[in-house]
């Protein structure tokens, strides 16, 4: 009996001892290890003095051990915790502070918190950004559902990047993305960061991020209403992308680090087909219009033109900077229609629409004695002209010549009066010289 108790106790002790240094839930073996964790916090970059903490966790993402805190070292968002002992390689990083708003081109007036979940055994240089923040809750949910951290992180990466049409970047962990890299991944981070903050205050951004994180955490996707909101935000951001790019470049130049930023428009899914950056012509691709010239009679007409294109085409560029408006060189009042009765705008008047790659042009009758020309241009979403239809509309030589209107008569009468006065003065002067 004593022998059985001794053996049983020995077995229990052996099991207990063998569990030390392991994650009991997953059966993974961990040896305490010292990690020197550093990286960047970027929305835009968090500014010097912002705070960041790191919390060790086990493979079930349960808190394990004490947390460490540090501060952002400079205005580029750099941080370092120095050498710290971790019982397991998993950790949560949480940063809070002011940041550079890349859309407005200025420092934020409020603070923002961003988080990241990482496996330090893969790397000790980890970045905290909006992408790591968006997938945070999703990784948690998947681990709670029985996945390993690696499996959960891989799936969350794929789901998140797919949600933005950027699945070609899913194999590179979001915690390795940095604004300063000058790479496609850098542009991805700037593009998504800009999309989330456009037309939002810091408080509104915090609220919006909480909503996105919950939706994505629960389902690995965003709801239809959120996707629609993102489309509206994307369109609102479209005309500001060059400014955003310049703001980032100028900010880093100001703090002493020249950076390159790729054209941001290539990192949005403008045509909503689930893939970003496939909306412009590649080498060897062309757009073909069924016809490029229309001869239109004076009375006008309706025309449909089929367009064959490997990319979506538009009648107006989706991305264009606002043009400055200048006053006309000659006042429109100069051509007021009450000077001449029957004088109207003698340009080609038309309506145009484009749907399912069919261009429809409705040309109105032309009120002109002579022929006039116009054109309809077709663009890709980037504002590149990819096609044009030239329109020549016949004039109507039988149109009556315009007559003076009431204003015209007043102008002519006034001119005639001034002319008569001038003639009278000339006549008096001629007589004076004749007699002297």
Structure description:
Helix 2 packs across helix 3 and helix 2 (130-144) packs parallel to helix 5 (202-219). The strands form 7 sheets. This protein has a 4-stranded antiparallel β-sheet. The chain has a 4-stranded antiparallel β-sheet with strand order 12-14-17-16, with no helix packed on it. Strands 6-3-11 form a 3-stranded mixed β-sheet. The protein is an alpha+beta fold and 436 residues long. It is elongated, with a radius of gyration of 35 Å. The protein is 32% helix and 24% strand. It is built from 8 helices and 20 strands. The longest helix is centred in the C-terminal third of the chain and has 30 residues, at 406-435.
Report the sheet with the most strands, covering strand number, pairing sense and barrel closure. Answer: 4 strands, antiparallel
The counted number of beta strands is 20
The SSE string, one letter per element, is HEEEEEEEEEEEHHHHHHEEEEEEEEEH
- Portion in strands: 15-25%
* Count of discrete alpha- or pi-helical segments spanning 4 or more residues: 8
Brief overview:
The protein is 32% helix and 24% strand. By secondary structure, the chain is α+β, with helices and mostly antiparallel strands.
Can you lay out the helices and strands and say which pair or pack?
Elements: H1 2-19, E1 22-23, E2 28-29, E3 33-42, E4 51-57, E5 68-71, E6 78-86, E7 90-97, E8 100-101, E9 106-107, E10 112-119, E11 128-129, H2 130-144, H3 149-163, H4 184-197, H5 202-219, H6 224-238, H7 241-254, E12 288-289, E13 293-296, E14 301-308, E15 340-341, E16 350-355, E17 358-363, E18 372-379, E19 385-393, E20 403-404, H8 406-435
Parallel strand pairs: 3-11, 13-19
Antiparallel strand pairs: 1-2, 3-6, 4-5, 4-7, 7-10, 8-9, 12-14, 14-17, 15-20, 16-17, 18-19
């Amino acid at each position: 009996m004593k022998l059985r108790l001794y053996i049983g106790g020995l077995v229990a002790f052996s099991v207990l001892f063998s569990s030390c240094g392991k994650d009991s839930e997953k059966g993974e073996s961990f040896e305490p290890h010292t990690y020197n964790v550093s990286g960047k916090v970027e929305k835009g970059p968090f500014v010097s003095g912002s705070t960041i903490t790191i919390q060790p966790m086990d493979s079930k993402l349960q808190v394990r051990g004490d947390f460490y805190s540090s501060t952002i070292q400079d205005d580029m968002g750099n941080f370092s915790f120095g050498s710290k002992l971790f019982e397991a390689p998993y950790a949560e990083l949480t940063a809070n502070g002011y940041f550079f708003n890349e859309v407005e081109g200025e420092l934020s007036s409020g603070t923002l918190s961003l988080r990241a979940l990482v496996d330090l055994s893969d790397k000790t240089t980890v970045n905290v950004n909006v992408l790591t923040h968006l997938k945070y809750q999703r990784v948690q949910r998947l681990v709670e559902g029985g996945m390993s951290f690696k499996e959960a992180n891989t799936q969350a990466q794929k789901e998140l990047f797919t949600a933005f049409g950027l699945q070609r970047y899913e194999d590179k962990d979001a915690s390795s993305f940095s604004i300063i890299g000058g790479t496609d991944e850098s542009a991805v981070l700037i593009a998504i960061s800009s999309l989330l903050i456009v037309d939002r205050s810091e408080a509104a951004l915090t609220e919006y991020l909480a909503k996105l994180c919950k939706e994505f955490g629960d389902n690995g996707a965003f709801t239809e209403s959120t996707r629609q909101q993102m489309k509206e935000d994307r369109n609102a951001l479209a005309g500001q992308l060059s400014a955003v790019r310049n703001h980032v470049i100028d900010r880093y130049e100001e703090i002493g680090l020249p950076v390159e930023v790729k054209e941001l428009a290539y990192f949005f899914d403008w045509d909503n087909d689930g893939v970003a950056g496939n909306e412009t012509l590649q080498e060897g691709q062309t757009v073909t219009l069924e016809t490029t010239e229309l001869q239109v009679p004076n009375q006008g007409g309706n025309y449909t033109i089929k367009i064959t294109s490997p990319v979506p085409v538009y009648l107006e560029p989706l991305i264009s900077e606002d043009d400055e408006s200048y006053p006309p060189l000659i006042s429109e009042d100069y051509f007021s229609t009450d000077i001449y009765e029957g004088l109207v705008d003698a340009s080609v008047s038309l309506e145009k629409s484009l749907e399912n790659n069919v261009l429809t042009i409705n040309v109105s009758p032309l009120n002109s004695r002579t022929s006039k020309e116009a054109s309809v241009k077709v663009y890709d979403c980037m504002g590149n002209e990819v096609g044009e239809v030239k329109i020549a509309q016949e004039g109507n030589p039988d149109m009556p010549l315009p007559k003076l209107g009431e204003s015209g008569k007043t102008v002519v009468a006034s001119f005639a009066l001034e002319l008569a006065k001038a003639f009278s003065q000339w006549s008096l002067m001629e007589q004076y010289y004749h007699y002297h």
